Amino acid sequence: MTTTSRAKNTTASSEQLNALVGDVLAEAKRQGASSAEASVSVNQGLSVTVRLGEVETVEHNRDKGLALTLFFGKQSGSASTSDLSPAAVRDCVRAAATIARYTAADEFSGLADPDQLAREIPDLDLYYPWNPSVEQAIELSLACEDAARAVDARITNSEGATVYSYESTDVYGNSHGFIGATATTRHGISCAVIGQDDSGMQRDYWYTAARDRADLEAAAAVGKKAAERSVRRLGGRKLSTRQIPVVYEAPVASSLLSHFVGAIRGASLYRRSSFLLDHLGKPVFAPQVRIHEQPFLKKALGSTPFDNDGVAPANRDIVRDGILQGYVLDVYSARKLGLRSTGNAGGVHNLTIQPGDQDLAGLLRQMGTGLLVTELIGFGVNGVTGDYSRGAAGFWVENGVIQYPVEEITIAGNLKDMFRGLVAVGNDVDPSGNIRTGSILIESMTLAGS
């Protein structure tokens, strides 16, 4: 079975890469493998950074690579190469075969079952090549940084503005007869600047990313927002220790869902190292919460027609009415747990927490008095117990209105309690990754300060 996404002109001919994967699988069979899988990718891109009005870096990349795994019964070996010449490919297959013969048998190893492989590849509109010239990228980067530096006299320094454009063609195949190809693009603009006054210096940033250049925010708008965010943090104060409600701004709220995904990922479950172990069918969030995967959204950054095992993903609820409906599994972890793959080899696909009707300002009004978190620092999260403690910065809010910036604080709690205490999700959804969420209001957390 050969499946290919409909694409325009790509970085490499998908037919050529399909043929290469087919040759690899045939070579694996000749070398005695009982089954095999291979993936090949070819990508190219440009990234330009300017700082303080001068070009700082110009980076071109053009990469290619082959990765394969051979199975001899339940023994397996993997190898990879960036040389796609016939001789190098044969050597790579031979290396994987040698490794496999020395590994211990694993009863859970092997390819996905044929009935789980993707059979139809929808056109997800993932390929929008831009290919700006270096001069165009420099012009946009300068426009972005110039806009930031013009916002306020207190913008005294810059970490730079970057414009990038990447495209890739990827093919995966296995000895069940599956070969699937996808062509994707990703473009973006980012800017980070430093504000300074008598109280000290503060840094903040903003960015935009999309499959299609036409969906990016304007370069000047990105720079302006980065500067505004930096300036508004000047004059940060410390707070005393207290119990408060907390709003996570959308760009940092996605980290809460990433901790949730880590807790229901197959590897965490079969290793019994998750604070949500044995929670399937039980309440894990507040009753109004729905979290679902949308792998087939057109043009979305987390969309895909098949996962890294060739398995077809599905639109599905992972949490419904606050109750855990399913896990995040690839083929191997699913077998370890006695379950079936959920099509998540390589990660989640547009994991979305259902937004409410309010924007960020509405959530702040609903919160009344508490903390708006705009930056998280450090990684104090225990995936086994759910204990959560991270450095933070943001703004103190009273009567739903921002009063002043705060810094040098820590927010703490337990993820189980935080999830069950999730009050509302804003409609200011950030679409710039595999996790899509608006700002999130948590009922109560401990703020540790001075």
Structure summary:
The protein is α+β, with helices and mostly antiparallel strands and 450 residues long.
Main features:
450 residues; alpha+beta; PmbA/TldD fold; 2 domains; 5-stranded mixed β-barrel
Structural class: alpha+beta
Class of the largest domain, according to the CATH hierarchy?
A: Alpha Beta
Count of individual domains = 2
Topology order in helix (H) and strand (E) letters: EHEEEHHEEEHEHHEEEHEHEEEHEEE
Estimate the strand proportion. Answer: 35-45%
Give an account of the 3D structure:
This protein has two domains: 2-231, PmbA/TldD superfamily (PmbA/TldD fold), CATH 3.30.2290; 242-448, no CATH class. It has 450 residues and is an alpha+beta fold. It has helices at residues 14-30, 86-102, 134-149, 219-231, 250-264, 266-270, 331-336, 360-367, 415-420, and strands spanning 2-4, 35-51, 54-72, 75-81, 155-174, 179-197, 200-210, 242-248, 291-293, 316-320, 323-324, 351-353, 370-377, 387-398, 401-414, 422-425, 435-436, 440-448. The strands form three sheets. Strands 1, 2, 3, 4, 5, 6 and 7 form a seven-stranded mixed β-sheet that branches. A five-stranded mixed β-barrel has the order 8-13-14-15-18. Strands 11-10-9-12-17 form a five-stranded mixed β-sheet, with helices on one face. Helix 3 packs parallel to helix 4 (219-231). It contains nine helices and 18 strands. It is globular and about 70 Å long. Mean pLDDT is 95; it is low at 2-11. The termini are far apart.
